[in-house]
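call fold(seq) -> tokens
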Amino acid sequence: MELTTAQRDLLLRGLQFVRSSVKLSLGESRLPDEQRTEQLEAIETLEEHLRGNLASQPSANLS
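ret:
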């Protein structure tokens, strides 16, 4: 999937909020530690993919 820089940055910002939500969830909404760890790892993998994906695109698609 091709993304512009603005689209990628927006997705990365959104992932920061998702990560914070997973880390800071309390009470009944808190996931078991194993699930939280898995979700945080999945978020990190997606962030790395988004950063790497943009670097591999031709510069014409970066606007």
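The chain has one domain: 5-57.
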